[in-house]
Write a structure and sequence with these properties.
This protein has 8 helices and 13 strands. The protein is α+β, with helices and mostly antiparallel strands.
Length: 362
């Protein structure tokens, strides 16, 4: 039975059992501070992992806020269900006239009413969880207090045979912890450097910049500003090559042999698109039953400023494979016709972006 239903059910059960009014309820679960801390730790680990997963799956960065807020909504809902609505747990009601233990659920259900004068002893020594012993018709019975909220206060109430009211600070603790978690998460999403990644204002991975090629108007406002003299670190993406950059450059001398630039350093993004193609050669096989058509092609390479998404330059590249007809061809049986469109070589792309990064072609 969830906490909210326990609070509604226990007073009537206590009255029926002759134990008087319910003064305090202890729940068979961990305390609010532990649960909230666990949720915070889980969110802190899950949100970066979620963002890395979205990047690995080539999901557009604009989907990040929806995924992150969706996760937070789901985690809060799970916490609320665990605390307020989950069945099958015990509730310990400290009453004026004794202790009421109520369990609800499909597997274990029942109510035990223990008057104060029936309490025998409380054993909280040793490594095992505390136990409460009482006499029921001359027979000793016990209940084990494992994971119970404010367990020490419950034990003191049983020992003193009277309700022990919660301290004022303990009454405020759940609300205080809840506010603390909300403030921390709000700060992480709006004030910390990580917020720029969550809200897609800053790229976490070079693949994120591919969205400038696939989504008109996209930008990363927290990217490095374009300098007036260079160098201009750049990443080039080609149509049909996924979201991974075909070539990158830092714009510094010897950058062709160095590692790719850091995403925080990228100033420019180049996007290569096919704009025109012409038949170059037609190869026939099996007496004309199968054909391979090769095309010469022209590509437009548009250069965008990562920070604003503004187009600042454009270039063209012509591609022609100049390869003879292959000796054999594996074709799609349903079509029998295949096409090959020439594409610029990686060296051509690299030569172009080296000139863009250095500022010569801007």
């Amino acid at each position: 039975m969830g906490d909210w239903r326990l609070h509604r059910t226990l007073p009537s059960l206590a009255t029926e059992a002759g134990l008087g009014s319910v003064r305090r309820v202890h729940h068979e679960r961990r305390s609010w501070p532990i649960l909230l801390t666990g949720k915070l730790v889980l969110d802190a680990a899950a949100i970066p992992l979620l963002i890395r997963t979205l990047t690995a799956l080539d999901v557009t960065p604009s989907a990040r806020p929806f995924a992150v807020y969706g996760w937070l909504l789901a985690s809060w809902a799970a916490l609320a269900h665990w605390v307020l609505a989950r069945d099958g747990r015990r509730g310990y009601a400290v009453c004026d006239g004794g202790l009421l233990i109520h369990t609800d659920g499909a597997d274990r259900a029942g109510t035990i009413a223990i008057p104060w004068d029936a309490i025998d002893t409380v054993d909280d020594t040793g490594p095992r969880p505390p136990r409460v012993y009482w006499l029921d018709g001359g027979k000793q019975r016990h209940v084990t207090l494992r994971t119970v909220t404010a367990r020490h206060a419950l034990i003191e109430s049983v020992r003193s045979r009277r309700p022990l009211p919660p301290a004022f600070t303990r009454r405020l603790l759940p609300g205080t912890a809840l506010v603390a978690v909300a403030v921390i998460q709000l700060g992480a999403l709006t004030l910390s450097p990580f917020a720029d990644i969550v809200l897609a204002h800053r790229a976490q991975d070079l693949r994120d910049f591919a969205s400038l090629c696939t989504h008109p108007g996209a930008s990363f406002p927290e990217s490095a500003p374009r300098t007036t003299t260079g160098p201009h670190p750049v990443a080039l993406f080609a149509e049909g090559h996924g979201t991974g950059p075909v070539a990158t450059s830092t714009g510094r001398e010897g950058s062709a042999t160095t590692a790719a630039p850091d995403p925080d350093d990228i100033q420019l993004v180049a996007c290569s698109r096919l704009v025109r193609r012409h038949v170059d050669m037609v190869c026939t096989y099996d007496g004309g039953e199968s054909k391979l058509t090769s095309y010469r092609a022209r590509y437009r390479v548009d250069v965008y400023e990562a920070r604003t998404g503004r187009r600042i330059a454009g270039h063209t590249l012509d591609a022609d494979d100049n390869d003879p007809c292959p000796y054999w061809l594996a074709v799609n049986r349903e079509r029998g016709r295949e096409e090959v469109v020439a594409a610029p070589a990686e060296e051509e792309y690299r030569s172009l972006i080296e000139s863009i990064a250095s500022g010569r072609h801007l």
